[in-house]
Write a structure and sequence with these properties.
Order of helices and strands: EEHHEEEEEEEEEEHH
Structural class: alpha+beta
CATH class: Mainly Beta
Radius of gyration: 20 Å
Number of domains: 1
Helix content: 25-40%
Largest sheet: 4 strands, antiparallel
Strand content: 25-35%
CATH architecture: Sandwich
């Protein structure tokens, strides 16, 4: 039995019109969006037709400098690909704010949210005017149903990343339990 295929919307002009959180409308060519998705390591295993479906169906989000995309604890229901600009991820805890990383074009924010529900572990804020492609979980899962051959490589990729993260966490745990040896006093 053949797996179901996702059908593309009827062909129109080669642009995909995305809604922009800043209130405007922007037109980005589907080809440009597909190329942006190809540059994301997580999506390298996906065939061009799958990327095209994501590019056509995704929503563009525009942020001004200082604007927050999401906050720690918000529901994680989608992933974002940075198309332009710069963002930062910050850990915000009572009386403590720590910058975790800076995100540049080609970065995927919230890849786990593409597969499973959860909460945002950090706050994402634009450092300058930025554009992102919003990929809702239902869209991503429907795309995978239409391209089941892509699911296994994605599963392996996610499993490798989880294993790597767990290894790093175990190393941190051991380092906290066993303090590093004190260096010898200089002569």
């Amino acid at each position: 039995m053949r797996p179901p295929r996702l059908s593309l919307p009827p062909r129109r002009a080669a642009t995909s019109s995305y809604r922009d959180r800043t209130g405007g409308r922007r037109a980005v060519s589907v080809e440009q969006a597909v190329e942006a998705l190809k540059g994301v390591p997580t999506f390298e295993v996906l065939p061009d037709e799958a990327l095209r479906i994501l590019a056509i169906s995704a929503e563009e989000v525009g942020l001004r400098a200082g604007e927050v995309l999401f906050r720690t604890g918000d529901a994680a229901e989608e992933g974002y690909v940075v198309l332009g600009g710069r963002l930062e991820l910050v850990s915000e805890q009572p009386n403590r704010r720590r910058r975790l990383c800076e995100l540049l074009p080609g970065a995927l924010i919230g890849e786990t949210a593409l597969l499973i529900p959860g909460a945002r572990p950090a706050t994402a804020r634009a450092l300058e005017t930025s554009r992102l492609m919003r990929i809702p979980r239902p869209l991503f899962l429907r795309m995978l149903e239409g391209f089941p051959a892509a699911a296994a490589p994605l599963r392996d990729l996610f499993a490798a990343r989880v294993t790597e993260t767990l290894g790093a966490l175990e190393t941190l745990r051991v380092e906290r339990l066993v303090p590093p040896p004190k260096s010898a006093a200089p002569d």
